[in-house]
Amino acid sequence: MRDEQTQTQRPQWGSRLGFILAAAGSAVGLGNIWKFPYITGENGGGAFVAVYLVSIAVVGLPIMLAETLLGRMGQSSTVGTYAKLSSPRSGWVLAGWLGVLAAFMMLSFYSVVAGWTLHYVWLALSGGLTAVDAEHLPAVFNALRSDGPVNIAWHVAFMALTMIIVLGGIQRGLERAARVLMPALLGMLAGLLLYCTGLDGFGPAFDFVFGFHAEALTRDGVLEALGHSFFTLSLGMGAMLTYGSYMRQRDDFITTSIAITLLDTGVALMACLVLFPITFSYGMEPSAGPGLVFQNIPVALSTLPGASSLTVIFFLLLTFAALTSAISLLEVVCAYFIDERGWTRRQATLVLGGAITLFGVPSALSMSAAPFMADEHGLVGRNWFDSLDYLVSNWMLPLGGLLTALFMAWRVGDEARRVAFDRGTSLGGAGQVYLAWLQLLRFLVPITIALVMLHAVGAL
Ligand code: TRP
Fold first, then answer.
1. In angstroms, rounded to a whole number, what is the distance separating the alpha carbons of residues 94 and 56?
2. Which residue, 273, 311, 336, 343, has fewest beta-carbon neighbours within 10 Å?
3. Cα–Cα distance for residue pair 111/319, rounded to 1 Å
4. Which of 113, 328, 391, 404 to probe ligand 1 with, by most ligand atoms within 8 A of CB?
């Protein structure tokens, strides 16, 4: 009875483009512009980028297809989909729960970083960035990082924005926001890239990003590259599954997933080719860590006419990119309580958004308040913020992806899977593509993830 209701009343994207924009909006976020360049810098460049690109192609894309297809078949949140396609008492339901938990944890620190971008919008607006030169920008960033109350205030502000959009629901909230903001971000990034090709540092930067310097890559680096391919494509916790469940059944999910993957990877590489030329031109460090984008962009823009407005625009767009990602994280958590527990969207958004905001406070304090900042007190030899990032990005997402692959390949009924697959693609000869994809999910994807994990713990 309730099932029938959810079937007919379940919200949907208004159009295929709406899904593409919202899913791309989820994928393209701080992961591409803030995180990818700085972890590339920390891991020595080229070899790390190569492992990341391979992970995107052989692991990321097949899992993205699996997630969107599971969402269409289950027509439910991540927990509900696992329950429906196996059985409510099955252990697979835990895989859904893992996703809800990961989304909850991730949003709590993601929002802190998004808060920094808001702070930089404000700094640029109030002229606080134009007066400083390259040497002092790290100090500006460190001052922000270690100012607890300011971190909390921006984190709360960003969570409030996220909650307002999620309250608006699927079409009016999520889709409308992505439709405007994504193209603006892309345009701005392309403009910056053009400018950076003219810098002296472009040559060395290009070599840093695309030259294969294998010696720089560590065990943890390989795991990080794999984990990041999940992070950046919004995989491994059921976000694409949830978004896929709102997709109209007749829309093609294969070309859509490919488009999203290409767009996401393109933005990440563009961000590197913007940030590293600046790094090398101004004698800064590629391994500057989480402050990289916050230190480089103001320097590069400072030489241009209208520097402060450009800086405002850049950080505003970065905030928007973060927002379209954050709403997908909150949506994963809310969808469970709406679909499975019968909460209203309003209840779910306010209660869960509020809980995530509270849970994010230690992350906001990770550079200023003793209990959360000490590396040795943190969970895994890192401060609170870094511990959460490490656990979620490097372990929970790949594990979630592994379970998604195994579930789709070995547990879901072949007939139902084939029908759903056929219905959802305009690629002729779905037979071949289908079989190739299934083989990847059966063997290559899970084995690769398992090997990388074993390698990371030193067992290989
Ligand atoms: N992909 C986003 C980024 O790159 C982050 C993100 C949003 C995410 N939703 C997700 C990551 C779901 C994993 C799962 O910034």
1. 25
2. 343
3. 10
4. 328
* Cα 425 to Cα 187, 200, 240, 242, 418, distances in angstroms: 30, 46, 17, 19, 11
Contact between 64 and 235 (Cβ < 8 Å): yes
343, amino acid identity: W
In the chain, the amino acid numbered 440 is: L
Probe ligand 1: pick from 59, 232, 356, max atoms within 8 Å of CB?
Answer: 232
Contact status, residue 59 vs residue 226, Cβ threshold 8 Å: yes
> Are 222 and 452 in contact, with CB atoms under 8 Å apart?
yes
Residue 49 host element (H or E): helix 46-55
Does residue 234 line the site of ligand 1, with CB under 6 A?
yes
Q: Residue 71 and residue 93: Cα distance in Å, rounded?
A: 14
Among residues 58, 108, 97, the alpha carbon closest in space to that of 403 is found at 97
334-362 pLDDT, tens per residue?
989 998 899 999 999 999 999 999 999 99
The tally of domains found in the chain comes to 1
**Cα atoms found within 13 Å of the Cα of residue 257, Cβ hemisphere only:** 26
Give the integer Cα–Cα distance in Å for 206 and 200.
11
Closest CA to 81 of 200, 192, 239, 193: 239
CATH code at 276? Answer: 1.20.1740.10
- C-beta of 239 in contact with ligand 1 (< 6 A): yes
Helices (H) and strands (E) in the chain, counts: 24, 0
C-alpha span between 200 and 276 (Å, rounded):
11
- The model's pTM: 0.92
Question: In 3-state terms, what secondary structure has residue 112?
Answer: helix
Q: C-alpha 454: how far from its chain's center?
A: 24
- Helix, strand, coil shares, percent, the chain, to 5: 80, 0, 20
User: Which tens digit of pLDDT belongs to each residue from 244-294?
Assistant: 988 888 788 898 899 999 999 999 999 999 999 999 998 888 998 999 999
Q: Which domain holds residue 381?
A: 2-456
